[in-house]
Amino acid sequence: MEKISILILEDDERLKNELGEFLESLSFTVHSASKPSEALVIAGKHKLDMALIDIKLPEYNGIIFLKKIKEWQPEIESIVMSGHGDMDTVIEALRAGAFDYLRKPFSIEELHASLLKTKRYLEVQNKTRKLEIICETLKNRQLSHTMLIGTSKTIQELYKNIEQAAQASSTSVLIYGESGTGKELIARKIHEDSSRRDYPFITINCAAIPKDMFES
């Protein structure tokens, strides 16, 4: 896995700096913020892998921020820090998507163990996603070979349009039609016949992406 990018959201300036120095010594790429609004600006500019989030913050608490950052970057894994170690807070943080929980004050050893555990989980998730992309690519190729059939005049014209679109080195294609008419199948066929065939074919559900994230 490449160098891990981590966000520190902590309003205690001394602790924030100490955490930053420690994480940099572990070869993390560190981004720091003292309040949620600053952290959201960072999240809009950088792809983050992990986050260290304090619960008690100015503007609003860390659990609300955790929910927001999960909407923007769902794959980020977070470790929540708090001086209030009651079970209700722990449960709320985990339900909001936190991977781990550290009760303040915590030792360097506890922090290091939590970071390693989270990093290992990220590595497994990264490998899983790569395998899923490979499987999806192989599936798409098989579907394209076996399911795009027909000999009518309309289908023959469709084949010509697919060939023209696939030969273009850089192009955008809009495919429209009623539900179930095979729009995604045509898109896969264009990809398979193009010079980009060795790269993954990735489908994105635009309606499921939060408005602010989709715009960025």
List the helices and strands and how they pair.
Layout: E1 5-9, H1 13-25, E2 29-33, H2 36-45, E3 50-54, H3 62-72, E4 77-82, H4 87-95, E5 98-103, H5 108-147, H6 153-167, H7 183-193, H8 211-215
Parallel strand pairs: 1-2, 1-3, 3-4, 4-5
Helix pairs in contact: 2-3, 5-7, 6-7
Question: Could you walk me through the main structural features you see in this protein, from its secondary elements to its overall organization?
Answer:
The protein is α/β, with parallel strands linked by helices. The protein is built from eight helices and five strands. Helix 2 packs parallel to helix 3, helix 5 packs across helix 7 and helix 6 crosses helix 7. The radius of gyration is 23 Å and the shape is elongated.
Distance between the termini: 25 Å
Major sheet: size, sense and barrel closure?
5 strands, parallel
Number of strands: 5
Numbering strands along the chain, what is their spatial order in the largest sheet? Answer: 2-1-3-4-5
Q: Gyration radius, to the nearest Å?
A: 23 Å
